[in-house]
Specification:
Length: 256
């Protein structure tokens, strides 16, 4: 077990060192939540027909935009793995004694820690917009855990896509094809009750919906989780476990 944890930590540390050398990517992704909250949110907060309960529409969508930032940042994580394959790094990792699942988990953990940077940025924007946020320790811990787990899910999903398509060009096409349906087929910017039945069924199967739900309960004053934080975390944990097992199985095939 200790060896497994050391291998996971070593991979995560290596990934974080790469991000530290070029932090521009992390901060360039801050532009998108700014645009959504400052422009889209300000406009749609004037619409009275969106049922958001006791909170404003801007407060309602803030957790959704944080989840979107996590999704968009993590979903293209796999392209770095394709670069590693082209440079021969993947082949070197695969001949090491490290567990395949430890390699996958280490990359997921690093993506989770990078997702926390997006959370800080969205919190700052929300504070500047005077959105009521929860600052209790337990609420912040809930948000941190949700961001870590959500980032792990979508970065591992990205790794699975990279293992299947194996080229940068195909990966970019598939990644762009999947991100918007995942985002719009969720409760990120509108409640489930506004959706037609078929879209609501998709949203229930979408892990992003559970990430948004737990963030809404822990992040915004007056916000609440529809399913309960325990259910949201349980669903995301199961999805992540399945994806780690699938990615660990496919990862050796990326080197071919």
């Amino acid at each position: 077990m200790k060896a497994y944890l050391r291998q996971t930590a070593a991979v995560a540390a290596a990934e974080l060192r790469k991000a530290a050398r070029d932090p521009t990517e992390l901060f360039s992704r801050a532009i998108q939540p700014v645009l959504w909250l400052v422009i889209f949110g300000q406009v749609f907060s004037k619409v009275r027909g969106i049922p958001t309960g006791d909170i404003s529409y801007l407060a309602f969508m803030t957790p959704g935009i944080l989840a979107q930032s996590v999704l968009f940042s993590a979903i293209f994580y796999g392209i770095a793995v394709i670069w590693e394959k082209d440079l021969g790094i993947v082949q070197k990792l695969l001949v090491s004694p490290a567990y395949r699942s430890a390699l996958v988990l280490g990359k997921a953990v690093s993506a989770g820690l990078r997702g926390l940077v997006q959370a800080v940025i969205v919190y700052l924007i929300a504070w500047l917009l005077r959105i009521g946020l929860r600052w209790e320790i337990l609420a912040i811990m809930q948000v941190v855990l949700a961001i870590l787990l959500g980032s792990c899910i979508f970065s591992t999903f990205s790794l699975i896509i990279a293992c299947i398509v194996k080229t940068r060009e195909r990966f970019m096409g598939v990644g762009q094809l999947l991100t918007m349906p995942l985002f719009f087929a969720s409760n990120a910017i509108y409640p489930l009750e506004l959706m037609p039945g078929w879209l609501r069924a998709i949203a229930v199967l979408n892990p992003l919906s559970y990430l948004v739900d737990v963030l809404r309960g822990g992040m915004v004053e007056g916000g609440h989780s529809l399913h309960g934080a325990a259910v949201d975390f349980a669903v995301m944990a199961i999805v992540f476990l399945v994806m780690v097992l699938v990615a660990a199985r496919l990862y050796p095939g990326l080197a071919r």
